[in-house]
Amino acid sequence: MDACLAVDREVDKVLSKFEDMSKSYNVVLQQLIDNLEIIQNDWQNNAIKDENKESSINEISNLIHKSKEKTQQLAIEHRELHSTVSKVGKAIDRNFVSDFNATCKEDIFDDPKNVTLLNYIICQHFYRQGNLDIADELVMESGIVIEPSIREPFAKLKHIKESLVNKNIYPALEWAKENRAVLDTQMYPPYPLVKRISSASNLPIRIPYHAKRTKFSGGIMKPRPKTKKIKRMELAKKILQQFYKSSALEFKLHQLAFLEIIQKGVEHQTEAVAYARANFSQFVDRYEKEIQIMMGMLLFIPQGINKSPYSDMVQENMWDEVIELFTRDACTLLGLSFDSLLNVSVNAGCAALPALLNIKHVMTQRKVNDIWKGKDELPIEIDLDSEHRYHSMFACPILRQQSSDTNPPMRLICGHIISKDALQKLGITKLKCPYCPMEQSTSEAKHICF
């Protein structure tokens, strides 16, 4: 961030200097042009008397001389501006690293599978963005195989998304009705999604509003009831139904259609009531409060919804929210993650790169480069914030190492968890738990998955 600010300061200097030059010389040069045009018109219309021609010629000579002086002065200051612009390039070279080979594995793309996987992820990203022609060209040049059944849904989704951008809900509403049975089974957190831009890569990322909270205030962590009649799966289903909601896309689309009607004025009030009766009855169980609010809006149509207590209901960002909901539901139905894999990779890489470059510089100075070479794990822990945390991680409390496929977490019979390497170092056949006095056999430890 400091590097970006340093470059930004140099850019501000260039823009400030250019703006000052533009203001000062635009006025002077325009005055010279206006004076010359006046004299030119007088000569063309024979408005100058014979005795005034000589003074007019002298005035033209003075204007030409003055124009040359200002032009030369402008050229000098323009050359000085070039030196200021060159400082921006020097600031970029000074604050940013252009060679990232030190943080890369040289043989990572020697394996054809990795190259194919990368091309597939890039191709999928372009399909998701609606750039079907670019994706098709990449498929042809890279030689990867994309089934027509994979491409066709993206073409349809592109059409629907473009319709929503143009504030046409009906293609999306038809899609939601077709997939209603599947969408009703999808369970989502009750918190709305918000789109923001990554500070590291300047690419969009989406996180729940509650992602930054330090504590979960819901009741999902309540103790399980003691009754034996309720099975665990049934209890989990009830908890999900209580704290998680199914897709709200179809209701939001009907809501937008209703709001569009009532904003047309009193003449369309009957149409709005008829639309509400025809479409909102199926959503009463889940969205009773929202429907009541919309019915209350009917009373304020004569004075205008924008001047009513419900003015916040007709904000422009409602369309953005519906587009986000549609993207989420469409990705769920296609079996894709909500965010593009390419976006996630670039965002995570840009956030991690400064720390990796710093540690590599330190390792080079201390001549310990071999510590990192050939290993799949990083030499330091990198905090990628909550938007890049997709699953729990386990760090062994004994060896202070993060678990991996070759060193998984193991549960002892006393309930304490340590890594497999720690288990092997504590004892070959029998061991004593490092946290309690219970003795046990190493074969009794069980592999657990996070």
TrEMBL record:
<dbReference type="InterPro" id="IPR044063">
    <property type="entry name" value="ZF_RING_GID"/>
</dbReference>
<dbReference type="GO" id="GO:0005634">
    <property type="term" value="C:nucleus"/>
</dbReference>
<dbReference type="InterPro" id="IPR006594">
    <property type="entry name" value="LisH"/>
</dbReference>
<dbReference type="InterPro" id="IPR013144">
    <property type="entry name" value="CRA_dom"/>
</dbReference>
<keyword id="KW-0862">Zinc</keyword>
<dbReference type="InterPro" id="IPR045098">
    <property type="entry name" value="Fyv10_fam"/>
</dbReference>
<feature type="domain" description="RING-Gid-type">
    <location>
        <begin position="396"/>
        <end position="436"/>
    </location>
</feature>
<dbReference type="GO" id="GO:0043161">
    <property type="term" value="P:proteasome-mediated ubiquitin-dependent protein catabolic process"/>
</dbReference>
<feature type="zinc finger region" description="RING-Gid-type">
    <location>
        <begin position="396"/>
        <end position="436"/>
    </location>
</feature>
<dbReference type="GO" id="GO:0005737">
    <property type="term" value="C:cytoplasm"/>
</dbReference>
<dbReference type="GO" id="GO:0008270">
    <property type="term" value="F:zinc ion binding"/>
</dbReference>
<keyword id="KW-0863">Zinc-finger</keyword>
<dbReference type="GO" id="GO:0061630">
    <property type="term" value="F:ubiquitin protein ligase activity"/>
</dbReference>
<dbReference type="Pfam" id="PF10607">
    <property type="entry name" value="CTLH"/>
</dbReference>
<dbReference type="InterPro" id="IPR024964">
    <property type="entry name" value="CTLH/CRA"/>
</dbReference>
<keyword id="KW-0963">Cytoplasm</keyword>
<dbReference type="GO" id="GO:0034657">
    <property type="term" value="C:GID complex"/>
</dbReference>
<keyword id="KW-0479">Metal-binding</keyword>
<protein>
    <recommendedName>
        <fullName>RING-Gid-type domain-containing protein</fullName>
    </recommendedName>
</protein>
